[in-house]
Amino acid sequence: MIQRTLLATSIKTALIASVAVSSSVSMSAFAAEETAKVERIEVTGSRIKRADMETASPVTVIGEAEIRAEGYTSVDQLLQAQTSMAGAALGATSNNGSDGVAQVDLRGMGSQRTLVLLNGRRMVNSGSGADSAVDLNTIPVAMISRVEILKDGASAVYGSDAIAGVVNIITKKDFEGFQLDLNGSTTSESDGENVELSALYGFNTDTGNYTIGVSYTERKGVIQGDRDWTIGGGSSIIPEGTLGGKQWLTDEETGESSWGDRQYGYDYTQDSYYQTPNKRYSLFLNAIEEFRNDITLNADFIYTKRESHQMMAAQPANLMLDVCGEPGVDPVNCMTLDQSMIDAGIKADDRGRVNFRKRMNDVGNRVYEQDTDTIRASVGLTGDLDIHTGFVWDVAYTFGYNRADTWVHNSIHAGRMIQSIYENQDAWFYGGNITPEMADAVSYVETTTGGNDQHTISANLSGELFDLDAGAVGFAIGAEYRYEKGFYNPDPVIVAGEGTAAQQDPTAGDYNVFSIYQEISIPFTESLTGEFALRYDDYSTFGKATTWKVGLTYEATDDLMLRGVAATGFRAPSISELFGGNSGSYDYLTDPWGNEQDAQILVNYTSDENLKPEESESLTLGLVYSPSYVDGLSLTVDYWSFEVTDAIARLDVQKGLNDCFAGDQVSCELFNIGPNGNLENLTNSLTNVGSQDTSGVDINVAYTFEALGLDWRINNDTTYLIEFVQDGVDYTGEVDGMFGAYAEWRNNFSVQLGTDTWNVVYFNRYISGMNDVYDDYATGEEVTDKVDSMLYHNISANYFVSDVTSLTLGIKNLTDEKPHYVSNGSDGGTSPEVYDTIGRQFYAGVSIKF
User: Fold this and answer.
1) From which residue to which does the signal peptide run (predicted)?
2) Given this model, what pLDDT does residue 22 score?
3) Distance separating alpha carbons of residues 61 and 703, to the nearest angstrom
4) How crowded is the C-beta side of 712, counted as CA atoms within 13 Å?
5) Counted domains in the chain
6) Does any domain span residue 350?
């Protein structure tokens, strides 16, 4: 038998109590759920079922009550609020290029390096097609019992993608009765409304439990221009159009017109979102059925439909027009440089062309729309074998299906637009007075389809092998087969390169992997326990991979446990990385030759079928302290470090530009940079040349006590980032619109007080000041500005009207803090994935259960 000590009990309490606000409710729910099951449970990070929660790996638990108290209506919101998150994960505030997807970015190491599980089994990657991560929109908050975040490398247990850690979402089960929840929110500017309506019904039979639920969530948009702190955009592509960089101008006093320098930059923030609209419809169920022969069936099912859209300013058309009379130019399909243009210095380049740019406001704003359907179904059988103290076996099949239709309304067909310009030169150049018929002729609706499929079959056996003096030796052994498929089919106009948006090729591919794994837990002494895991994976794409994990826990005293884990990990190349078609991306870059008019420069992204897996090493060292002389107090401190080698990455284009400009011909050829800084074919390929080195310290202090006739719960989570170095560049303590934020300090503090019938929660979130590093266009030198720290305040109250009804009220960003300016901000002069761009929000909810 595994012996229970005072420390074991303390650690279990401490780990569960590490939940922040409202953890009292979530703890009781957690304990009740687990007590109702079996003596041994499976803890995230291990397949060995055990009686206690203590392991060598640090796990953060976020309970249902905390989720509700903080007013979260999406999984990405609650995850990104954790101090262990960094970077810039896609979510509700991602307007440009997100396709409505929401992801998690643990440690800022990339969403593709965090594994997302549902009830301990993989979720299908989802989004617009051939995706490399899970779209968290597919998991409704209404079905969540708790979320467990394993902040340790776990490839030896779960396989690929668990380099940075694991997010395991546990759904509600063993539910009896009917529960109806209504939650809503709005901003102090009376926009950005959110509403969530869900119903849950569960019933017991003589042999099992069945729980079914439905959920509807709607999120409305917030326009960037509706916030007075927004810094307007300054695009060189304006509605009036420019030819050779010149604009057709009319003197207000004389009424005379002529070609002159462009007078202004177009402000695109009036037509872009800070919060993107979204509707989600979900159906979910859990089933547990016990058969007479001691075999239990457990199954879960989710179906989610997401309807989302984003909006941006009208399509910018950036075209090269052939000039009549130039060598090699078709004398019919061309434009004529008249005398006024020649007098203004407009002339053809060395290929007989001239640049024409126009913001297509005549057609309308670009409206991006997605309609996705995601199904995830898993069914398993579990039984006992009468061997030693009892072995537990289980087999399971998990099916994942994701399909997406996406549209871009008011897209522009470049070929038809060029032809229209040749045929109607005066209308296009002199004031841009094109007719509605001309606008309709050059516009179209861009249509794209995509999807992801996943099939997983697994078998596992666990139990106790034999007894040592200090306790039983536990083990788990198993095998798994997984098949992944993905595809993405851009609109034929985009594939042909005939649109004004970047050209992109289709993506299609699949692979399979067979895995075997084993774990063992050995109590060397009553104080020292070792955990060992080994996994072997065989991929159809690149071959074999072997990973291992060694963990130790040492009970130094009845109050103090020391723990540590060393592990290796890997990430297999995704379908889009292996089989992705060439695609264009407008990256923020500085042109050292000064030829480009905009900071966003088109780069051709390419994939590689010969990519190898990423490899990693991780180390976690920590302690759990729960002093017996202070009842309810617990402290955890964990040092962590991750090193990723052979990372699948793209080269540093800016460095390539700078090196080519300095005369390095190898860089010019590597990035396809033409003579005199010609960037028309600028290319960046995926290779196994990347690296990541990051380390830091996590600290949690939790204290539960009674005072003044009230129950108190205080929780403080701190993450100190020692370093984050990627591809040789140190991003520690920096913020940028492209890669997000790597603050040295992040801290979440909460205090809850109340009684059995009510409680009030105060929560604050701190992000330390960071450096904003950018290139000065005027001097060409690197400049560093300081971005101040940020402290957000939230407050909420819960009132239990009766045993049936409870109410929640709350305010997020109580002091209405404005986001900080970021020079290279991705939207509105800031980084919306880092700072709150919505402003103060009020939320309320009611829950009825009977």
Assistant:
1) 1-31
2) 33
3) 16
4) 12
5) 1
6) no
The contacts of residue 252 (CB under 8 Å, 6+ apart) are none
State the first-to-last Cα distance of the chain, in angstroms, to the nearest integer: 40
Sign of the torsion angle spanned by Cα atoms 125, 127, 132, 136: negative
In angstroms, the Cα distances linking 287 to 204, 213, 283, 424 are 10, 12, 14, 66
pLDDT block averages, 10 residues each, the chain of length 850: 36 35 33 42 76 76 89 90 94 91 95 95 96 95 94 94 96 93 96 96 95 97 93 88 93 89 90 95 96 91 97 93 94 94 94 94 95 98 89 97 97 95 92 86 97 98 93 96 97 91 91 97 96 97 96 96 96 94 82 82 89 96 95 96 94 89 92 92 90 97 96 97 94 90 97 96 97 80 92 97 95 96 86 94 95
Dist. CA 151–CA 165, nearest whole Å: 5
Q: For residue 648, what are the CA distances in angstroms to 117, 609, 614, 644, 690? A: 23, 12, 7, 10, 6
| 3-state SS, one letter per residue, for 326-360 | CCCCCCCCCECCCHHHHHCCCCCCCCCEEEEEEEC
> Three-state SS for 418?
helix
Place of tokens 């950036």: 318
Pairing outcome for strands 528-539 and 543-555:
antiparallel
DSSP 307: E
Interstrand relation of 114-118 and 165-171 (parallel, antiparallel or unpaired):
parallel
292, 110 in Cβ contact below 8 A? no
Q: Which two tokens stand for residue 209?
A: 């439990």
Asked if 692 and 644 count as a contact pair (C-beta separation under 8 A), the reply is yes
Q: Which two tokens stand for residue 391?
A: 């072995």
Query: Which is nearest to 374 in space by CA: 299, 302, 287?
Result: 302
Mark residue 252 as left, alpha or beta (left: phi above 0; alpha: psi -120 to 50; beta: remaining): alpha
User: Burial letters for 144-171: b for 16+ Cβ neighbours within 10 Å, e otherwise?
Assistant: bbbbbbbbbbbbbbbbbbbbbbbbbbbb
> Would residue 798 count as lying in a domain?
yes
Name the phi and psi angles at 256, rounded to 5. -80, 150
- 756 SS3 class: coil
Whose tokens are 């008011």? That residue is 410
255 assigned to some structural domain: no
**What is the strand order of the sheet 246-250 is part of?**
257-261, 246-250, 242-243, 353-359, 316-322
- 559 SS3 class: coil
Residue 777: predicted pLDDT = 66
The CATH number covering residue 777 comes to: 2.40.170.20
Helix (H) or strand (E) holding 443: strand 443-468
Enumerate the H helices of 612-700 as residue ranges. Answer: 653-661, 665-670
Number of H helices, E strands in the chain: 13, 43
What does the alpha-carbon distance between residue 28 and residue 33 come to, in Å, rounded to a whole number?
A: 8
For residue 345, is it within any domain?
Answer: no
69: left (phi over 0), alpha (psi -120 to 50) or beta: alpha
The residue type of 212 is: I
Cα separations in angstroms, 246 against 83, 243, 460, 594, 676? 49, 5, 69, 16, 22
CA distance 191 to 276: 12
Contact 421, 442 (CB under 8 A): no
What is the value of pTM for the model shown? 0.89
Distance of alpha carbon 102 from alpha carbon 453, whole angstroms: 19
Q: How many angstroms separate the CA atoms of 216 and 278, rounded?
A: 11
- Strand order from edge to edge, sheet including 165-171: 59-63, 144-150, 165-171, 114-118, 121-122
Are 139 and 77 within 8 A, CB to CB?
A: no
The label of the residue with tokens 């870059």 reads: 589
Contact status, residue 165 vs residue 109, Cβ threshold 8 Å = no
Residue 394 token pair: 């289980």
Distance of alpha carbon 360 from its chain centroid, rounded? 32
Here the tokens at position 483 are 């098949």
